[in-house]
């Protein structure tokens, strides 16, 4: 769970980062940042990060970054609300009592450590290589990966073609052992780490259309295979008449996932403002389709200050094996999950960044604040086949605050 939240947090943080103005005599650049991320009555993230970059002549750089994610709070288990008090046992053996009419959650805490290394090298002004490696570790998940990109500038730099790829070797070691999928949770199939492999490819092209306008198109594909189940998620078994939970099963997902997306982005420079726009369409063989529209407008207040409002809308349909719950006595499907992140989902993000360079001081600061409202589309009666009328996907309110500082020396 924490690795997904961290990934989302990193995206929020990166979008608020500043870019220091190039200093021709500088040999180093330091990027420091901190992120606070919170979901109302759910998950909280504290993420400090730092990156040190060695600047060489000709645009070559070597960088190393280290980050810590401290994640605490509660995460939905996948179970549905009940009309009676419900007592369950977590994988770690802790007994938890759910109140009437609330979405069941599980308390958790974790700390994730991340190390990233990068090398960017232009070759002769028309060819650029970008290589990277990363390692992360938390109590139940370890990831080791590498990636590389090759960019070629054509037509006097007006067109840039990019190809790249990456590979991750991950392991998942669930607390309390790996439980059998779609079981009552008491069957442990092993205590050894479960392998997960991720490979990715991308092809992109960017084009300068005029003195003010540039567009780009990126197509990427990611293939995952191995242990892709969320080990702590469950599905409720419900009574066919009342819709009340009478038990629960562990979730089970396919062992492979083929993910593809296409991103079209545009940057347009007005007299005083810069408009950033992108549209991302995603699809996979789990049946999920999504679209994300992202807009940012940078406005310079002075030569040392700017503001950048931001709006983003995301729409997703549910996976083919998503179920709010399973009816007791009905045939159990091959795969099933009640994870809300695989269901019908919409998010609306509103926020903005204030960036400034303090007078008589080196470096740049940026402060970014955002609010996100996330909600689903439940249709519980039709989805479960009972008289259950409780909202199974209530709105979630999310806030984040990121502060970044960049300095060259």
Explain this structure to me?
- With 409 residues, the protein is mostly beta strands.
- The chain has one domain (2-408): Porin.
- The protein is 5% helix and 60% strand.
- The chain is built from 2 helices and 23 strands.
- The strands form 4 sheets. A 16-stranded antiparallel beta barrel has the order 1-2-3-6-7-8-9-12-13-16-17-18-19-21-22-23. Strands 15-14-20 form a 3-stranded mixed β-sheet, with no helix packed on it.
- It is globular, with a radius of gyration of 23 Å.
Major sheet: arrangement of strands: 1-2-3-6-7-8-9-12-13-16-17-18-19-21-22-23
Query: Mean pLDDT, rounded to whole units?
Result: 89
**Count of DSSP-assigned helices:** 2
CATH top level label: Mainly Beta
Radius of gyration: 23 Å
Helix content: under 10%
Q: What name does the CATH topology carry?
A: Porin
Kindly give the count of domains: 1
The coarse silhouette is: globular
Structural class: mainly beta
């Amino acid at each position: 769970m924490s690795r997904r939240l961290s990934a989302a947090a990193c995206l929020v943080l990166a979008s608020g980062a500043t870019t220091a103005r190039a200093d021709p005599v500088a040999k180093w650049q330091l990027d420091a940042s901190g992120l606070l991320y919170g979901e109302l009555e759910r998950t909280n993230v504290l993420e400090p990060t730092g990156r040190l970059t060695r600047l060489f002549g000709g645009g070559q750089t070597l960088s190393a970054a280290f980050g810590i994610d401290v994640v605490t709070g509660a995460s939905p288990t996948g179970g549905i609300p009940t009309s009676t008090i419900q007592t369950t046992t977590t994988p770690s053996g802790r007994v938890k009592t759910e109140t009437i009419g609330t979405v069941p959650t599980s308390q958790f805490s974790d700390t994730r450590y991340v190390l990233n290394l990068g090398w960017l090298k232009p070759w002769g002004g028309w060819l650029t290589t970008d290589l990277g490696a990363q390692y992360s570790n938390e109590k139940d998940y370890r990831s080791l990966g590498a990636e590389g990109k090759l960019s070629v500038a054509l037509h006097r730099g007006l067109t840039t073609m990019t190809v790249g790829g990456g590979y991750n070797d991950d392991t998942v070691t669930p607390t309390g052992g790996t439980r059998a999928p779609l079981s009552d949770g008491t069957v442990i199939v092993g205590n050894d780490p479960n392998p997960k492999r991720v490979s990715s490819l991308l092809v992109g092209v960017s084009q300068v259309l005029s003195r003010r306008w540039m567009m780009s198109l990126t197509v990427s594909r990611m293939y995952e295979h191995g242990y892709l189940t969320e080990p702590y998620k469950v599905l409720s078994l419900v009574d066919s008449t009342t819709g009340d939970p009478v038990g629960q099963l562990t979730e089970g997902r396919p062992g492979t996932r083929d993910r593809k997306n296409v991103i079209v982005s545009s940057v347009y420079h007005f007299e005083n403002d810069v408009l950033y726009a992108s549209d991302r369409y995603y699809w996979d063989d789990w049946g999920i389709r999504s679209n994300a529209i992202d807009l940012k407008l940078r406005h310079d207040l002075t030569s040392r200050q700017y503001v950048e409002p931001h709006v983003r809308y995301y729409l997703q349909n549910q996976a083919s094996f998503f179920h709010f719950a399973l009816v007791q006595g009905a045939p159990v499907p091959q795969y099933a999950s009640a994870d809300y992140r695989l269901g019908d989902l919409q998010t609306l993000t509103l926020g903005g960044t204030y960036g400034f360079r303090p007078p008589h001081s080196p470096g740049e600061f940026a402060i970014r604040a955002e609010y996100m409202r996330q909600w689903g589309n439940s249709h519980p009666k039709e989805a479960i086949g009972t008289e259950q009328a409780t909202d199974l996907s209530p709105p979630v309110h999310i806030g984040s605050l990121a502060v970044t500082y960049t300095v060259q020396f």
